Write the structure tokens for this entry.
Amino acid sequence: MSRLFPSIFAIVVGFATLIGLFIAPNLGQIMLNWGSLLAAFALLMGIINLMRVHLNRASTERNLYSLVLVLSMWAIFFLSLTDWLGLTNNTVAEIFTYVQAPLEGAFASLIAVLLLVAGFNMLKHQRSVWTVLFLLAAVLVLLSTIALTAFGTLFLEIRYWLEAIVVTAGMRGILIGVALGSVMIAIRLLLGIDQPYNK
């Protein structure tokens, strides 16, 4: 019975959500609100668990990265609280603007360079048409971000063409695959074929 109840509950809730989305909008809105509440609670439990794990790691293993993570989380929490109470003015937004956004830009630049290096290494070990195309696209995108006035807007036009045609087509294919996979997983869960909650 302990293994059967989660399956029955998941199937009933799944069908109720499906009926609410197509037939009874009020029921669908209630189910979506419950789902949002459960997701928020799960996020809170995940944050608490993350804090507990890294506090334990920082105290027992003297891990510097865990200590930085814990201190950063507490700092953001207290600054959010002071913003909410009106003691400070948009401190969290300023931290995001002047700390997180530059760090994200730096990491994105590192990823671009690492992709280029990986393309050269791949070209050494495996010479194929796809490797050459990958390396060529990476070089063109990197060159389009540099202000090369001698070539005018040639690299920018190539980059816009790559983003508008090639990248968009790839993204649409990936999104269609994700949507089909999500539908198949939902059908298997509704029929009780997959039972991840019993593992």
